[in-house]
Design goal:
With 184 residues, this protein is mainly α. It has eight helices and five strands, in the order H-H-E-E-H-H-H-E-H-E-H-E-H. The chain has helices at residues 2-6, 33-38, 56-66, 79-91, 97-101, 124-128, 146-149, 171-176; strands spanning 44-45, 50-51, 110-112, 136-138, 160-162. The protein has a three-stranded parallel sheet with strand order 3-4-5. A two-stranded antiparallel ribbon has the order 1-2. Strand 3, helix 6 (124-128) and strand 4 (136-138) form a beta-alpha-beta unit.
Length: 184
């Protein structure tokens, strides 16, 4: 839809160069095929050596990242757009305590914060505010403790939780969320 409307008539749609996911990883945040095609990152046309023009969505996300401190909330945006903005900020390491607060109650589905600098218990209130929309969280290598882990107890649809190398999570913390069917 958006990609088709914003490209020139003689410009073909190349669906082979789709960038699905966060920083090259797979993500479940796209809700339909047109999202992947219209929001794909710029690609190189190998045959001509020319870089294709970025999508309107890419340009908007880039501008939001540049002016990120001007925004107090993204909760009024559709979930898939908020998810893309969040993912971009994570990949570019522009997420801070105050920026994260703008994503409170955005119904994000996937939070890939593994190895993210500064990620600790203070962030877990905003993480848990995603509520039943939250499907997967990567806490790997973070400073999350048992106290932070308990915030996830209310995220009823959480399917995948990764906390590799979280040295401050003990058996007691795991017992607090025990009984949940996580893919750990």
């Amino acid at each position: 839809m958006g990609g088709a409307c914003s490209r020139k008539r003689d410009q073909p749609v190349n669906e082979d160069n789709l960038n699905r996911g966060v920083c090259g990883r797979y993500s479940k945040s796209g809700s339909s095929k047109w999202l992947g095609t219209s929001f794909s990152r710029s690609s190189m046309d190998a045959s001509q050596g020319k870089q294709s023009c970025p999508s309107l969505m890419d340009l908007c996300i880039y501008k939001i990242r540049q002016d990120i401190n001007k925004y107090s909330t993204f909760s009024m945006l559709p979930r898939d757009i908020s998810q893309q903005i969040f993912d971009d900020l994570v990949c570019s390491q522009c997420l801070t305590d105050s920026v994260l607060e703008a994503f409170r109650d955005c119904a994000l589905q996937d939070l890939n914060l593994g190895e993210y600098p500064g990620f600790n218990d203070n962030w877990m209130d905003v993480v848990s505010s995603q509520g039943s929309s939250l499907l997967s969280v990567d806490l790997s290598g973070s400073d999350i403790t048992d106290s932070g882990l308990i915030y996830l107890k209310g995220c009823k649809n959480l399917q995948a939780l990764n906390f590799n190398y979280c040295d401050q999570i003990s058996d007691k913390g795991l017992e607090q969320i025990n009984g949940r069917n996580f893919f750990l």
